[in-house]
Specification:
The chain has two helices and two strands. The chain has about 70 residues and is α+β, with helices and mostly antiparallel strands.
């Protein structure tokens, strides 16, 4: 499995079902997710040793409306 540092997850307060959003430019990572809707996100915590969490993600949808993307970023 490849991992790429690309975008940070945005957790929307109104969504308490565990969904998150990523704002991505149309580059290689975005193309990869379009072809394979499974991804993972790795949180690494500061400190000694290896501490963090990995989120296993599945794409549920994609938004391309600039106004909605701006609202998600807020």
């Amino acid at each position: 499995m490849n991992q790429a540092i690309y975008a940070k997850p945005l957790f929307l307060e109104k969504d308490d079902d565990g969904t998150c959003s990523f704002v991505m430019a149309n580059r290689l990572t975005h193309d990869n997710v379009r072809h394979n809707p499974s991804a993972s996100y790795l949180f690494i915590e500061q400190g000694e040793g290896y501490v963090g969490k990995r989120l296993s993600l599945t794409v549920l949808g994609e938004e391309s409306t600039p106004e909605k993307i701006k609202a998600i970023r807020r």
